[in-house]
Amino acid sequence: MSSPTQRVLSALLIAVFALSVAACSRDGDAPSGHTGRDEAAEGELAPLAESFDGAWSGVLPCADCDGIDVELELQREAGAAGRYRLVETYLGVVDAAGFEIAGEWRETPCRVGDADGLCVMLAESGQRWFRHPDGSLQAVDADGRALDPDGARLQRR
Prior knowledge:
The protein has two helices and eight strands. The protein is of the alpha+beta class. The protein has a domain at about 5-45. The longest helix is centred in the first third of the chain and has 21 residues, at about 5-25.
């Protein structure tokens, strides 16, 4: 059995190889009617590493407050389930208290609009976050529609 370090290095080498193959297989000219945007989204977005520690934050719109300050932390150790911590604070509300929830997360293939990608699924809260190639997260519903039509996202810290 290999060590966690060997597995991480293997995963990194596979990711570098996949990106190299994708870069070499692209033509200088895209076929007519093709923008190349889909290739970049599919070729650049790999699943989060087996050992992972990341955090995102941002302010999302709110119908009856000034916004929702969101902080999301994802952690996973090799061979273990991913754990998350989500803190939401409603802004501009008298005596606003933050809501905190923690639990398990997983990453699954998903489709948002016409884009295929990966979604981070928060088991206990039922939330889905679409991962964009730039690393940002966008809240989506079970049918793959953005919860905020203006496209508000959490940014990686």
